[in-house]
Amino acid sequence: MSGTANPLRQGLVEDRSPEPCTVVIFGASGDLTKRKLVPALFSLFTERLLPPSFAVVGYARKAMSDDDFRAEMHEWCKKFARHKPTDDQWARFAPCLSYQTGDYEDPEAYAGLKARLAAIDTERGISGNRIFYLSTPPATFPIAVQRLAESGLTDRRGNDKFTRVIIEKPFGTDLDSARALNAHCRSYLREDQIYRIDHYLGKETVQNLMVFRFGNALFEPLWNNRFVDHVQITGAEAIGIEGRGGYFDLAGIVRDMVQNHLFQVLCLTAMEPPVSLAGDDLRDEKVKVLKALRPIPEGRFDDFTVRGQYRAGSVAGKPVPSYQDELGVNAGSTTETFVALKLFIDNWRWAGVPFYLRSGKALPKKVTEVALVFKDTPHRLFGERSVSEPNVLAIRIQPDEGISVRFGSKVPGNTLDIHPVNMEFRYGTSFGAEPPEAYERLQLDCMLGDQALYTRADEVEASWRWISRLHHAWAQRSSGEVPRYEAGSWGPDEADLLLRRDGHVWRRP
Ligand code: BG6
Q1: In sequence order, what are the beta bridge partners of 359?
Q2: Where in the chain is the domain with CATH 3.30.360.10?
Q3: CA–CA distance from 25 to each of 33, 145, 171, 471 (Å)?
Q4: CA-CA distance, 184 to 248, in Å (whole number)?
Q5: Ligand 1: which residue has its CA nearest to atom 11?
């Protein structure tokens, strides 16, 4: 079994085959299971990346038979799997699936699950390797971890069988809760059994940030404060909150997108080269970036952060209601649906280089991008005719995955006019293949026992430390006012001002 079918997998992991195992998905009736987790497992199956003996057990409170679960998953795989199932493939995959109804608290339910897993082990020749994927509401994480351990389904001592637990986001809601959850998990599991997921790390183009930087000689020499003027990281979404008002109104965009996804992208952009791709070497470097993030100076809050909340407008011609009118949002809510931050990484490489981050819902389009904006040439040889825009290296994480370099070129003709042009690399055209889904790569890595693309306890805490200070500073401000922006715009005017004060403008990706 090998990953060589996909050239983008090469270079990051050596090709290994997972041992036979069962993946138990807690929260199996939920959206993530249907849209992402099972379709991803099915795509791995079609690419022959799963072990020969393999099972998936859906676990949730909702009563359902195995056949119902299989039929439902068939429909979702047809809709969402990267490889649509043929009848023959489905006939071979469906027997891997079973379903167990159960509560997340009741010890007896765990006894039932244990008996079921033992039976599946025998039927399918699996011999006890297990992954428990907690895709449940975060409030259930502690009890599920505890019950799994008490029922003997996870074993801290370590023997020749593995038991690993994947924990979905959000991992805590602030520094204290993240610390408490880490401590709780560690009292039942070893760190090497805990897989804290951030699906951005499973994205091909996020991993390519490392290949791009450390697998080439060309770019890294420029990747520092001698040449880079500033960095812009954008995580924009066109969608609003899509019926998730109850969750989102408590979270806000900073917890939903910045603490995890954007900070991961920031870390991979800013970190030093790790000594190897082993999980801890990579994560050590990311933690150093998070530790070097300068706290927002006391009393200078508005110089470094901008919040926003969308009001009614339209995105791509479709009307979008005001955030305040979304289902589940509290009347008079001051939760931010947009944020822009100016960050400094106080270390040798990045001293003095601002990193501007922004993320928002109901913006004009979906785009995730990292852009390095370069300093001017030391001398303007071409005077007034010199290029008016700085050189930019933009890494497009999604969609239209690729990399572009913007630089000045002579306009053809008998004058010396200079105009900015783009040099483009696009995954689609260069490789002619669609990148795998993040959840494919991440579930496969967990089967392989590779934690490099999962976050470590200290990493999660370091990122919450910075974010919790931000929330604390926001809470201290006398006015709870949040600037509004029209849905379908690029956020409040204050976000433009944040850059304009420094003589910069946001890119319009
Ligand atoms: C999730 C957030 O973690 O990431 C969502 O909860 C957000 O609000 C999503 O829409 C974005 O992920 P992606 O892969 O679509 O960029």
Answers
A1: 235, 339
A2: 201-377+458-500
A3: 8, 13, 17, 33
A4: 25
A5: 257
- Could you list the beta-strand ranges (E) of 29-175: 54-60, 97-101, 130-134, 163-167
Ligand 1 interacting residues, C-beta cut-off 6 A: 169, 199, 237, 256
Q: Where in the chain is the domain with CATH 3.40.50.720?
A: 18-168
| Catalytic residue of the set 261, 379, 419, 471 | 261
- 9 vs 186: which has the higher pLDDT: 186
Q: What pLDDT shows up at residue 97?
A: 97
Q: How far is the CA of 193 from the centre of ligand 1 (A)?
A: 25
Ligand 1 atom with least separation from CA of 237: 10
Which fold, 201-377+458-500?
A: Dihydrodipicolinate Reductase; domain 2 (3.30.360)
Q: How far is the CA of 20 from the centre of ligand 1 (A)?
A: 31
Per the structure block, which two tokens stand in for 161? Answer: 């069988």
CA 132, chain centre distance (Å): 20
d(CA 310, CA 362): 7
**257 Cα to the center of ligand 1, angstroms:** 7
Our mutation pick for probing the ligand 1 site, out of 171, 261, 323, 369, counting the most ligand atoms within 8 A of Cβ, is 261
Least confident of 11-15, 41-45, 388-392: 11-15
- Helix, strand and coil percent figures for the chain, each rounded to 5: 40, 20, 40
Q: What is the pLDDT of residue 160?
A: 81
Q: Which residues contact 108 (CB under 8 A, 6 or more apart)?
A: none
Q: Which of 423, 408, 406 is nearest to 371 (CA)?
A: 406
Displacement of CA 153 from its chain's centroid (Å):
28
Paired strand residues for 24: 57, 132
Q: How many CA atoms lie within 13 A of 180 on its CB side?
A: 11
Cβ neighbours around 27 below 10 Å, total: 22
Phi and psi dihedrals of 95, rounded to 5?
Answer: -65, -15
Q: Residue 199 burial by CB count (10 A; 0-12/13-18/19+): exposed, middle or buried?
A: buried
Tell me the sheet residues that pair with 196: 167, 455
Look at residues 400, 419, 401 and name the one whose alpha carbon lies nearest to residue 409.
Answer: 419
Question: pLDDT digits over 378-431, tens only?
Answer: 888 887 766 678 999 999 998 988 999 999 999 999 888 889 999 999 988 888
Q: Look at ligand 1, atom 6, and give the residue with the nearest C-alpha.
A: 256
Judge contact between 407 and 423, C-beta under 8 A: yes
74 labelled catalytic: no
| Torsion 437-442-443-445 (CA) sign | positive
Tokens standing for residue 153: 């389904």
- CATH superfamily, domain at 18-168: NAD(P)-binding Rossmann-like Domain (3.40.50.720)
- CA 490 – CA 377 distance, rounded (Å): 30
Q: With cut-offs at 50, 70 and 90, classify the pLDDT of residue 15.
A: low
**Average pLDDT of the residues in 473-479:** 77
